[in-house]
Design a protein that fits this description.
This protein is an alpha/beta fold. The protein has eleven helices and 13 strands. The structure holds nicotinamide-adenine-dinucleotide.
């Protein structure tokens, strides 16, 4: 059993990952600043899942606070670190760039420095499918060039990969970046389409479907992401020397996505059906009254589509939950949570 530090532990992915790790008997040190980017009641509800575990230690701290990060590392000496704390969201980064630099760049730098001074077996960190920008070639492969981000959010995630590469090379820190593709599920993020559309339907407001519905997203269910993260966590890149006798960077990057992109209009159709099935909306709800097709937004991309062959090859794993099954679980949770 290991001591695992999870940043962003009150977040969507961080909380489900922490819960699974605790179930497996690990000690989890969680850090989260519980910021107000979205409804903090959801973050508190996620943290409530840990009440029954005495191997969970929580710090309400900002990873941009170097002293706090160092103190936590020195006290707990984590063997594995999973950095999920970040300012997420593509559109928000257009209006609020500062917080992306603070959390995603300075915060991540503090984590790297802490791993340098308190050696870890493996640093795993969240990157994003957004690093592929407006790349035309699909599916997106980790061998593709990703030098053309179309949002500051994407630029910070690509920067994380570069910073991790440099620390892997200089200090021989095994690190793996994970490019997640549109993660969804129960207790998810209210800023994401499946959740915000649901809120709007309930309020009787119109939803906007970007690029007139001609967008595709590779929706990935939360349990599949957690499974992928845990498999990767347990397989750090090997430390080996190159021809010059110096260590090669123990560095890797993987896509974790469903590898089955769905058209946004089909996605909205399935969401509607599942919201009715779960009793969130009445059977005769007239969705056509509440749909507006609008043009593309700045920072958005037309398609995301993960090539997961490297994950399958190295970890023997491929996410597989269908969108219908995942949205069914989301709709049921929504009904229970909001009544
Ligand atoms: N959910 C997705 O579809 C998706 C896709 C690609 C990448 N990612 C990345 O995965 C990670 C987790 O995403 P999520 O969906 O769980 O998001 P989330 O917003 O639910 O979780 C992030 C958590 O980090 C915390 N946080 C933010 N800045 C912090 C800081 N400076 N110090 C301490 N805590 C801080 C937030 O309070 C939040 O609870 C993020 O790095 C995100 O960029 C998510």
């Amino acid at each position: 059993m290991k001591t695992i530090l999870v940043t962003g532990a009150a977040g969507f992915i961080g909380s489900f990952l922490s819960k699974r790790l605790l179930e497996q008997g690990h000690k989890v040190i969680g850090i989260d600043n519980i910021n107000g980017y979205y409804d903090v009641r959801i973050k508190e509800a996620r943290l409530d899942m840990f009440n029954e575990y005495d191997k969970f230690v929580f710090y309400k701290k900002n990873i941009a606070d170097k002293t706090a990060v160092n103190e936590i590392f020195e006290k707990h000496k984590p063997e594995i670190v999973v950095n999920l704390a970040a300012q997420a969201g593509v559109r928000y980064s257009i209006e609020n760039p500062d917080v992306y630099i603070e959390s995603n760049i300075i915060g991540f730098f503090n984590i790297l420095e802490a791993c340098r001074h308190n050696p870890v077996e493996h640093l795993v960190y969240a990157s994003s499918s957004s690093v592929y920008g407006a790349n035309k070639k699909v599916p997106f492969s980790t061998d593709d060039k990703v030098d053309n981000p179309v949002s500051l959010y994407a630029a910070t995630k690509k920067s994380n990969e570069l910073m991790a590469h440099c620390y892997s090379k200089l200090y021989n820190i095994p690190s793996t970046g994970l490019r997640f593709f549109t993660v969804y599920g129960p207790m998810g993020r209210p800023d994401m389409a499946y959740f915000s559309f649901t809120n709007k339907f309930i309020e009787g407001n119109t939803i906007q479907i970007f690029n007139n519905g001609n967008c595709k997203r590779d929706f990935t269910y939360i349990d599949d992401i957690v499974e992928g993260v845990i498999r990767v966590m347990n397989h750090p890149p090997k430390k080996v020397n190159g021809e010059d006798g110096l260590p090669l960077p123990p560095y890797a990057v993987y896509n974790i996505g469903n590898s089955n992109p769905e058209n946004l209009l089909d996605f909205v159709d399935i969401l509607q059906q599942e919201l009715i099935r779960a009793g969130v909306l009445p059977a005769d709800y007239n969705f056509d009254l509440y749909k507006e097709l609008v043009p593309m937004q700045p920072g958005d991309v037309i398609v995301t589509y993960a090539d997961t062959s490297a994950l399958e090859r190295d970890m023997g794993y491929k996410p597989g939950t269908s969108l219908r099954e995942g949205l069914h679980k989301f709709a049921q949770w929504y009904k229970d949570f909001y009544g």
